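Students often ask why we bother predicting the structure of a whole assembly rather than each chain alone. The short answer is interfaces. A chain on its own may look different once its partners are present, and contacts between molecules only exist in the joint model. In this exercise we take two input lines together and write out one structure for the complete complex. Read the inputs first and try to guess which parts will touch.
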Amino acid sequence: MSELRKDPITGRWVIITSDRPLRPADLAAERQQPPADLSTCPFEPGNERYTPPEITALRDFGTRANEPGWWVRVVPNRSPALKVEGQIDKRAEGMYDIMNGIGAHEIVIETPNHAEELAVMPESHIRDVLWTWHDRILDLARDGRFRFVMVFKNKGARAGAMLAHPHSQIMALPVVPFHVQEELAGALEYYRYRDRCVFCDLIAQELADRRRIIEDSDHFVTVVPFAQRFPFETWILPKSHESDYGRLSSTDAGELSRVLKRTLQRLSQALDDPPYNLVLHTAPVNLDPVPSYHWHFEIFPRIAHTGGFERGTGFYINPTIPEETAQYLRDIKL
Amino acid sequence: MSELRKDPITGRWVIITSDRPLRPADLAAERQQPPADLSTCPFEPGNERYTPPEITALRDFGTRANEPGWWVRVVPNRSPALKVEGQIDKRAEGMYDIMNGIGAHEIVIETPNHAEELAVMPESHIRDVLWTWHDRILDLARDGRFRFVMVFKNKGARAGAMLAHPHSQIMALPVVPFHVQEELAGALEYYRYRDRCVFCDLIAQELADRRRIIEDSDHFVTVVPFAQRFPFETWILPKSHESDYGRLSSTDAGELSRVLKRTLQRLSQALDDPPYNLVLHTAPVNLDPVPSYHWHFEIFPRIAHTGGFERGTGFYINPTIPEETAQYLRDIKL
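Now the answer. The structure tokens for the assembled complex follow.
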């Protein structure tokens, strides 16, 4: 069973996957993306037997589970970092804290079409992906052992994708990820001082300023963050205050799919279809809506190796000017 | 002039290098390590004119500054992320905080020998590098504008090195890097509760347990951290409590050079001379010694692309078992 270990200095939890761990001797070789051989891709229609049985799917009327006919399909990860069975067992090892690796780890196969990335799907299909994320969050939140449901997408080998077929991942965790914790703490401090949501204030200032705005629709906005860490880092936020992505309305999901598509298209054109990570930051589950937090997507194109010391210091040097990046992305003709 | 921008949510400072920024259009192409053409390597003896005038150097008696004869040479970075001239000017832009990019950015050329990496240098030479870091910290700390002196080394293009010639970097900053801030805050909380340094407790437990120990000398210890974030992440700590690397004794520097060399040799043999980042975590400058903090090196071999979502969540999945990695490294014959 995998375990969660807590760094005693910062309180950061780390997953140690002791189920099928990599041996140190295996690690000299780089992880490679397997060639795109469709016959063995476990996410192709017709290959449903290569994945564990599906959790849910959007599929044509009359087709059966684990057979073709689906257009979005959710399956358990075959090598999950965390396992769903068992009770949470917190224990100490001297000064260290350990928790057994309880959690869910699911794959959202976003399309039957091996080559159809999120940026090029029809908006209605993107909406179905966004709505699947939403449904999985609500379903997993029913499990009282979980504190957080993490939705993320790694596109391209350099962004950490093991398979080329378009997919995203869902992890239900018994702890809140560190960056989200930092955001929650910082946003709460701001709220206590000003009685306002820091994200709402940020959106209001960005909308007045315009220099970092990339997309601006009725209910959503895409911005380059003021203190951008990485070149082309981009956020999408709902304009109205909402801490919980699980409370997204069906109508708003349609609008969000359009904004997400246009944002990804801009990045794709600017950077020639770059590898990227997309992460949903949302409030911990099983909480009432929070006045101090605000859900959003963060998108990180992987265009250059980070300088390295970021990893050890948490300090970022961005060699681009956020306002210039925003203008560049805004000027792309869609 | 570059500027420091503060993320309004978490309080994290980011450097935006607006002096000679990369244009968005330039970023589609990956940063490449230039070929090792010794005649144009600015760090070769005889090429001293290609760097700004040296700040200090260890050199043969009778040789002149900015000429050959040195064995460790410190020069300003030709494209510094921060500049030394001027006063710190903090200002607001609506809700955002900005500081002008005051700081120092120096390069430590570790050897005249293009191919002689830290892991293979004689111990006495490594000691001179470690002592140069120490001297630069003390010298830069005299400047009251600085809060922190960051020492780090990127080895290999994939770890962020722009040049192959062995070198490390020193940055004096008007702010404390985020990870160090997190450590300082967590360590202070621990100290308030227990009246002990969390690192000292950690070292005592590791020395009793032995499973994660890689090197153990009179005054230093190399461990794999209990909540290891990345495969082969390794820390070196002084056994006796000391918050400030600037207070390292000359004798201890000799012992530390031996421990560092042996640690790097083990990593090099295990992973076939991997790219890596080495970062010094030490107390902010211009403070009295702190009872709650403990300086240390953190070393991160870059053997696999991180999964991607770490970047957006601060949550790490380590596919190896720390105790197994430690044993593997310990068993390597030196």
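Check your guess against this: Helices of chain B lie at 123-141, 178-194, 198-209, 250-271, 309-313, 322-331.
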